[in-house]
């Protein structure tokens, strides 16, 4: 696939209202394994891939033998919500509006497999999504630039013709490292100041807010075919 310009989107917390589900299910997975990890710390780590999230919260010197058990426990707990995942207000409409303006829509997410399928069903915009760069497609997840770069490669565009929309510090750092324009949403619960410090060029409340300001946003101004 190829397009003249790409709108790349994170999914959890950006298009789907799932961050707090991840917080609770990671908290329970850690609890079952005998680790006490505050929910506030898990919140700030959401957006990292499973192995990176565990290392970030337990420290690099934790026993890596625990990782598979923790990831499996989190997945099993989170999977109980698959048929109830909800898109954020305006998510599908935003993707369709951008596609109608000539933007190629690509996802860049740490989700994969059945989890990603459940998220895409919730968003209900597969008619305009060209593809997805998932955790299965890259060696290093965000904040490394690899997921964003792979999404760009799926769309066939250089960095100067791409915008990445996310909700976490890891999203913003990955976008900056890849050289695309970073746009942040507050729907994941991370403060505006933190997102701007991490590189966000613009910040909006949620997908519906970005959709309402589309004509004055970076999508209308900075990136041209």
UniProtKB/TrEMBL annotation:
| Record InterPro entries | HAD-like_hydrolase_sf, HAD-like_sf, HAD_sf, PGP-like_dom2
- Which cellular components does GO assign to this protein? cytosol
Q: Which GO terms describe its biological process?
A: DNA repair
Which UniProt keywords are given for this protein, alphabetically ordered?
A: Hydrolase
Show the GO MF annotations.
phosphoglycolate phosphatase activity
Under the heading Gene3D superfamilies, the entry gives: HAD superfamily/HAD-like, Putative phosphatase, domain 2
| Name of the protein in question | HAD family hydrolase
Source organism (scientific name): Streptomyces phaeolivaceus
């Amino acid at each position: 696939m190829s397009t003249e310009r790409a709108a790349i989107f994170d999914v959890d917390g950006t298009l789907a209202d799932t961050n707090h589900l991840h917080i609770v299910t990671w908290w329970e997975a850690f609890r079952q394994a005998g680790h006490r990890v505050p929910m506030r710390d898990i919140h700030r780590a959401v957006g990292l891939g499973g192995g990176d999230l565990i290392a970030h919260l337990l420290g690099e010197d934790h026993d890596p033998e625990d990782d598979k058990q923790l990831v499996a426990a989190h997945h099993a707990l989170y999977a109980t919500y698959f048929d109830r995942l909800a898109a954020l207000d305006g998510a599908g409409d935003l993707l369709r509006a951008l596609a109608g303006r000539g933007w190629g829509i690509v996802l860049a997410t740490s989700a994969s497999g059945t989890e990603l399928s459940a998220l895409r069903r919730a968003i209900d915009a597969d008619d305009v999504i060209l593809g997805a760069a998932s955790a299965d497609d890259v060696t290093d997840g965000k904040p490394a630039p690899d997921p964003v770069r792979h999404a760009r490669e799926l769309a066939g565009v250089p960095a100067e013709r791409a915008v990445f929309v996310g909700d976490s510090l890891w999203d913003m750092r990955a976008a900056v490292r890849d050289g695309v324009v970073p746009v942040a949403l507050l729907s994941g619960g991370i403060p505006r100041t933190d997102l701007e410090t991490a590189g966000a060029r613009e910040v909006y409340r949620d997908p519906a807010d970005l959709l309402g300001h589309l004509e004055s946003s970076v999508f209308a101004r900075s990136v041209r075919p």
